[in-house]
Amino acid sequence: MLTEEIMTQEIDKGDAEKCHEDCNAKLFYSDAAKYWENVPATVNGMLGGFGFISHIDIDGSEAFLKTLFTLENPPDKNYAVDCGSGIGRITKNLLVKHFKHVDLVEQNSKFLNTAKKSLSSCSTRIGEYYPLGLQDFCAAPRKYDVIWCQWVLGHLRDDDLVDFFTKCMNGLKENGVLVVKENVTRSDYVEFDTEDSSITRPYDNFKSLFKKAHLECIREQKQLRMPGILYPVFMFALRPSKTLLAHLALQTTDTSSI
């Protein structure tokens, strides 16, 4: 959910664990899947009735992505993956313009079918379509230069999100980057949306989860020009910390010795 509405339940930091227990009791993932089954496979549907912000969003994302290509050790432009791709809005308007190949991950079959039609003109640039929720997606080792996650991570509970981040790091090539673009609350509270079964996290909560997953935030930026009724949106560029890099290197060594 992009907007801050009355149906959102505020949950104190100290009650975060209870929140996720409650989410589980409410069949967190299946409730979200049911919600999206009733959403039209259109840009307006993907953006909760705010389809008119799509170009603003894409412009901000493109500006942020271009800054990543100016890093001292920039990602290559060979392979990206669009996580929670929906109908392929971000793939079509952003990722295929900068990468030779793009995979899409989306659990809703209706959205994936629409994406295939929408991306038919650039089908040679599309790799795999993965019909999975992110809690079940495991990136192939060292496949991606950029992993793009936008307006989807609120559908993962904290423990699954940390696990997802760890699997993403394993899926990045050398100099690869994980991009997280998500809503952020204006308060210090985690907010649970009872309509679409999603969580909106405070800024500090994201930073805490990055740290827990041993990620280093190398660049961040707030999305500009969004309507005031919407949540603030932040973009984070993440790479594995030195600790995680050492662990991944050890895993590679152990595997190669078998």
UniProtKB/TrEMBL annotation:
GO molecular function: N-terminal protein N-methyltransferase activity
Lineage: Eukaryota, Metazoa, Ecdysozoa, Arthropoda, Hexapoda
PANTHER family, per the entry: AD-003 - RELATED, ALPHA N-TERMINAL PROTEIN METHYLTRANSFERASE 1
Residues the entry annotates as binding S-adenosyl-L-methionine: 84, 89, 134-135, 150
GO CC annotations, alphabetized: cytoplasm
EC number of this enzyme: 2.1.1.244
Reactions performed catalytically: N-terminal L-alanyl-L-prolyl-L-lysyl-[protein] + 3 S-adenosyl-L-methionine = N-terminal N,N,N-trimethyl-L-alanyl-L-prolyl-L-lysyl-[protein] + 3 S-adenosyl-L-homocysteine + 3 H(+); N-terminal L-prolyl-L-prolyl-L-lysyl-[protein] + 2 S-adenosyl-L-methionine = N-terminal N,N-dimethyl-L-prolyl-L-prolyl-L-lysyl-[protein] + 2 S-adenosyl-L-homocysteine + 2 H(+); N-terminal L-seryl-L-prolyl-L-lysyl-[protein] + 3 S-adenosyl-L-methionine = N-terminal N,N,N-trimethyl-L-seryl-L-prolyl-L-lysyl-[protein] + 3 S-adenosyl-L-homocysteine + 3 H(+)
Record GO biological process: methylation
Keyword annotations of the record: Methyltransferase, S-adenosyl-L-methionine, Transferase
Name the record gives this protein: Alpha N-terminal protein methyltransferase 1
Gene designation per UniProt: mettl11a
Domain of life from the UniProt record: Eukaryota
Enzyme class: transferase
Record-stated family: Belongs to the methyltransferase superfamily. NTM1 family.
